[in-house]
């Protein structure tokens, strides 16, 4: 029923009273027949009625406070229907339908209740009106079928058959393309026409009159047409419809119909996977519908696109993005007024909290020439929709003010539309100040965008610069005077529509007030005076800008000095922590040296096992972050000789305790294998987990993908536990390069290292390290990253600074991140720019440090004495003012720099300062005495020798 009224409510009350009277009569008859209910049952029923009535009143009161409580509406309707409160039920349904589109279930219940109460023809018209409202909310085949079947009941009225056919045709247009449920509508339409056919067919044996024959032929043609139309539409179970048509038709199906049927069948087969995906998916099936929509958009059939959108929205009516995509398609492609506006209306009724849908609705109303009152009413509804953030109200006001501005004819000095626009601007500012700020504790418009638009309109269209200046004064008093861009906006407005005097005044105020980019404002003022000003005005501008920049530089110097002091304090604290850690380590080492015998040996083995475990990290000397270099060196040290139980006898007391899966072969069995060893056909595998079960079998299975494995030699400790590395020897030497490609792949959740197998006793200088350890100006080193940082997140952070070739996250031996990374850019310029922009920024609550990749010189000989001797031969690394890459710029005032005292301390293999004059390079004595400088006599002796 479409509308409520006093007559309608009176009729419903009469029906309710009749129903109650009938119940009372039945109760009287039952009493007269001796049927009596127990007092206990009557009491229970009365208690239930009281509880339900109390709940109904509570729900009605809650809706009076918040009318947009969807679930409260649903609960109230269920209770009222259960209690049989027809008048209140009708009113509750009416209120809910005004606020929300109703679901198929709610509509069908409402329609069935109204159909049962409709006895007269006037009531039938009201039910028709209710059906019209129902079919507009969503595309529901069941509601259309109910509508058509109900209309058949009025076939006896004037024009009844035509009305039924009209409703069926509309149903076919709306849901006839529904691939799974559309068939039911087609079949119901054909059944109706077949029933009509039975009424026009002549009796057996009689000869029809020409009029009867014409009616018969017309009815047969209608049924033929329905079959042909249905077979041209891709629907599920099309084959059964085609077979039914062959059986029903008294002549062969034409080739054209068959061709259309086959084409539709092919289309159905293409869409069938999407339909099957919908059948097996769990509600709301959003991803499956999205894939189906994308497919139909590529096919480009507007009717099918509309149907699949409607099907998706029926199950995802609270997804704003789906509504936005659908309405955008209707706006740009179909452009049918009724369809577009009704879809926008349903969108905002389903998702009233989404400001984007309201903005698009206002634009659609204006685009299709809706009345001004209609646009204004919908704008008021938007203000009452309850947006979730303050900026949403700024957007909806902007959209409405844009609409009002487009209505104004500015060629007239004054008009009703212009006054309405100014009144709307005033109301918008008041609304943002009173309503929005009170609710969200913020204006939502810190840059005063609405006032800026108003000022531009007054200056450009109304030629009213006085009003524009008043508005800009108000903007600056709201905390925007410290921003250079706001002053430049005002200056550009004066430059375009004002005069030179106000331009100069604005720039002078900007120089005094701007705190973010004062240099830029000063430059604009000087440029302006070069073009417009006199010598006196130029001198005033120069003096003012110099004074301002002097104050700014003094403030920045103070801030820099404070930051430098804080940084120095942090460095001192870090140095104290390092010293305390070193002292603690030395103390532990002293205690360890005091241990003797087997106890010390067992403890050292236990420490070694803990040190190489998954949760700890092998201490290595490396550039901060060049973990790969340290990993490889550690692996090479272990690769010098095959230790463990190879070549030695295992203690008999311990070999009996080793499990069968981990028990190593005895020395005698392995001695023969040592003779077969071939390093050229072998690789060295390290960084394996000590807890690896049956390492020989697992490693063999892993490497057999590269080629046939001849032998796997895992290395064990004397107590029989696995040491975490092994040797893999292949049958063919050509397999080794393929095996080396498996480096860093995981085994049991731990990255393993695969290296060439080289005897370090014969090749002591052999090193394998695939990353450069010298200065790389095109590569940056990042530290301080959160351990949760992924490669994709780091790519997103770095891509705005240039195009990069590779990103490498540094991990420890267990494969866990260390908070370090290397990023290789295309060129040095991009890397330098990335250092300047990224160093010191906060990334995921972590302050990161960025520098040009410059690892220290590696210890070539591996001995401390050699590193000291070679220190003077290695070129000193060049650092920038901040102790990192030279490409970095110093943001620290030069006046505050202090030259450090010269030190002879070596760091990272290089001497920080060199003494002047020649120094004889001699090995340090056992006592640690320093070499003496050469005397004049020494120089003379050297010359005489030459």
Beta-strand percentage range: 5-15%
Q: Uncertain runs with pLDDT below 50, 5 residues or more?
A: 1-38, 602-672, 859-930
End-to-end CA span: 121 Å
Structural class: alpha+beta
Shape: extended
Number of strands: 14
Helix content: 55-70%
Number of helices: 36
Largest sheet: 4 strands, antiparallel
- Order the strands across the largest sheet as they lie in space: 2-3-1-6
Q: What Rg do the Cα atoms give?
A: 44 Å
Overall pLDDT: 79
How is this structure best described in words?
The chain is of the alpha+beta class and 946 residues long. Helix content is 60%, strand content 7%. The protein is built from 36 helices and 14 strands. A 4-stranded antiparallel β-sheet has the order 2-3-1-6, with helices on both faces. A hairpin with a 5-residue loop joins strand 8 and strand 9. Helix 2 packs antiparallel against helix 3 and helix 3 runs antiparallel to helix 4. The longest helix is centred in the middle third of the chain and has 59 residues. The protein is extended. The N terminus is likely disordered.
Task: Outline the secondary-structure elements.
Blueprint: H1 6-32, H2 39-65, H3 70-83, H4 86-99, H5 104-117, H6 121-137, H7 141-152, H8 160-175, H9 182-200, H10 210-231, H11 238-248, H12 255-280, H13 286-299, H14 302-315, H15 320-334, H16 337-350, H17 355-367, H18 372-383, H19 390-407, H20 416-440, H21 449-460, H22 465-480, H23 484-497, H24 500-513, H25 518-532, H26 535-593, H27 597-611, H28 627-638, H29 652-655, H30 667-676, E1 682-686, H31 695-703, E2 709-716, E3 722-730, H32 736-740, E4 746-747, E5 750-751, E6 753-756, E7 776-783, H33 791-798, E8 804-811, E9 817-825, H34 828-838, E10 842-843, E11 846-847, E12 849-853, H35 864-870, E13 906-907, E14 910-911, H36 936-945
Antiparallel strand pairs: 1-3, 1-6, 2-3, 4-5, 7-9, 7-12, 8-9, 10-11, 13-14
Helix pairs in contact: 2-3, 3-4, 5-6, 5-7, 6-7, 7-8, 8-9, 9-10, 10-11, 12-13, 13-14, 14-15, 15-16, 15-17, 16-17, 17-18, 17-19, 19-20, 21-22, 22-23, 23-24, 24-25, 25-26
């Amino acid at each position: 029923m479409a509308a409520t009224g006093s007559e309608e409510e009176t009729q419903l009350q009469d029906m309710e009273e009749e129903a109650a009277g009938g119940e009372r009569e039945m109760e009287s008859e039952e009493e007269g027949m001796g049927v009596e209910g127990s007092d206990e049952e009557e009491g229970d029923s009365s208690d239930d009625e009281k509880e339900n009535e109390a709940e109904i009143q509570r729900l009605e009161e809650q809706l009076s406070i918040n009318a947009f409580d969807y679930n409260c509406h649903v609960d109230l309707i269920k209770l009222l229907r259960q209690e049989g409160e027809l008048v209140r039920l009708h009113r509750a349904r009416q209120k809910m339908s005004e606020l929300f589109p109703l679901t198929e279930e709610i509509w069908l219940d409402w329609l069935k209740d109204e159909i049962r109460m409709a006895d007269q023809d006037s009531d039938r018209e009201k039910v028709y009106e209710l059906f019209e409202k129902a079919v507009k909310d969503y595309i529901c085949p069941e509601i259309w079928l109910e509508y058509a079947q109900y209309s058949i009941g009025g076939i006896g009225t004037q024009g009844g058959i035509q009305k039924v056919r009209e409703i069926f045709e509309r149903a076919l247009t709306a849901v006839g393309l529904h691939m799974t449920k559309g068939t039911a509508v087609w079949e119901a339409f054909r059944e109706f026409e077949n029933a009509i056919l039975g009424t026009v067919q002549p009796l057996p044996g009689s000869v029809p009159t020409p009029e009867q024959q014409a009616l018969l032929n017309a009815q047969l043609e209608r049924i033929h047409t329905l079959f042909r139309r249905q077979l041209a539409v891709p629907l599920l179970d099309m084959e059964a419809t085609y077979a039914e048509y062959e059986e029903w038709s008294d002549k062969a199906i034409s080739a054209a119909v068959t061709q259309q049927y086959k084409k539709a069948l092919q289309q159905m087969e293409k869409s069938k996977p999407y339909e099957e995906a919908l059948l097996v998916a769990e509600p709301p099936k959003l991803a499956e519908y999205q894939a189906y929509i994308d497919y139909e958009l590529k096919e480009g059939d507007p009717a099918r696109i509309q149907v699949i959108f409607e099907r998706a929205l029926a199950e995802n009516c609270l997804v704003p993005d789906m509504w936005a995509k659908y309405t955008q398609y209707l706006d740009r492609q179909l452009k049918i007024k009724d369809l577009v506006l009704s879809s926008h209306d349903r969108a905002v009724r389903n998702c009233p909290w989404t400001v984007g849908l309201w903005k698009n609705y206002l634009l659609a109303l204006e685009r299709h020439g809706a009345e001004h009152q209609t646009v204004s009413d919908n704008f008021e509804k938007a203000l009452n929709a309850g947006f979730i953030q303050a900026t949403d109200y700024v957007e909806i006001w902007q959209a409405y003010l844009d609409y009002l501005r487009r209505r104004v004819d500015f060629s007239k000095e004054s008009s009703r539309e212009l006054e309405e626009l100014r009144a709307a601007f005033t109301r918008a500012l008041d609304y943002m100040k009173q309503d929005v700020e009170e609710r969200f504790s913020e204006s939502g418009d810190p840059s005063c965008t609405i006032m800026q638009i108003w000022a531009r309109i007054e200056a450009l269209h109304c030629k009213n610069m006085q009003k524009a200046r008043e508005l800009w004064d108000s903007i600056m008093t709201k905390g925007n005077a410290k921003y250079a861009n706001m002053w430049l906006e005002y200056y550009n407005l004066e430059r375009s529509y004002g005069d030179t005097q106000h331009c100069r005044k604005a720039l002078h105020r900007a120089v005094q007030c701007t705190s973010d980019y004062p240099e830029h404002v000063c430059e604009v003022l000087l440029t302006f005076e070069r073009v417009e000003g006199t010598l006196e005005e130029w001198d005033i501008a120069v003096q003012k800008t110099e004074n301002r920049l002097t104050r700014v530089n003094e403030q920045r110097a103070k801030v820099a000095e404070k930051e430098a002091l804080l940084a120095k304090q942090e460095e001192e604290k870090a140095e104290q922590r390092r010293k305390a850690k070193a002292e603690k380590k030395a103390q532990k080492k002293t205690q360890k040296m005091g241990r003797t015998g087997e106890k010390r040996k067992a403890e050292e083995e236990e420490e070694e096992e803990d040190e190489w475990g998954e949760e700890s990290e092998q201490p290595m000397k490396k550039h901060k972050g060049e973990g790969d270099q340290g990993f490889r060196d550690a692996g090479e040290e272990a690769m010098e000789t095959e230790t463990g139980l190879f070549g030695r006898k295992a203690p008999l007391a311990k070999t009996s305790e080793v499990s069968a899966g981990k028990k190593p072969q005895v020395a005698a069995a392995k001695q023969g294998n040592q003779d077969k060893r071939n390093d050229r056909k072998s690789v060295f595998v390290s960084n394996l987990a000590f807890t690896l079960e049956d390492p020989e079998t697992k490693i063999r299975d892993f490497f057999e993908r590269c080629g046939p494995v001849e032998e796997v030699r895992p290395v064990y400790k004397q107590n029989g536990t696995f040491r975490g590395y092994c040797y893999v020897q292949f049958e063919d030497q050509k397999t080794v390069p393929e095996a080396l490609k498996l480096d860093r792949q995981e085994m049991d959740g731990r990255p393993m290292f695969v290296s060439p197998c080289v005897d370090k006793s014969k090749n002591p200088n052999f090193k394998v390290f695939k990353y450069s350890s010298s200065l790389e100006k095109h590569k940056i080193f990042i530290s301080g990253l959160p351990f949760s940082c992924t490669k994709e997140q780091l790519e997103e952070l770095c891509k705005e600074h240039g195009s990069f070739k590779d990103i490498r996250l540094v991990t420890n031996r267990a494969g866990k991140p260390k908070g370090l990374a290397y990023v290789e850019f295309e060129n040095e310029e991009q890397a330098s720019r990335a250092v300047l922009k990224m160093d010191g920024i906060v990334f995921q609550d972590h302050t990161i440090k960025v520098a040009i990749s410059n690892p220290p010189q590696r210890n070539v000989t591996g001995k401390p004495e050699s590193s000291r001797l070679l220190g003077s031969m290695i070129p000193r690394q060049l650092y920038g003012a901040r102790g990192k890459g030279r490409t970095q710029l110093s943001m620290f005032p030069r006046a505050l720099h202090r030259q450090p005292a010269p030190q002879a301390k070596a760091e990272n293999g290089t001497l920080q300062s060199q003494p002047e004059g020649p120094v004889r390079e001699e090995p340090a004595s056992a006592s640690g005495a320093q070499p003496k400088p050469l005397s004049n006599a020494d120089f003379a002796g050297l010359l005489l020798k030459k």
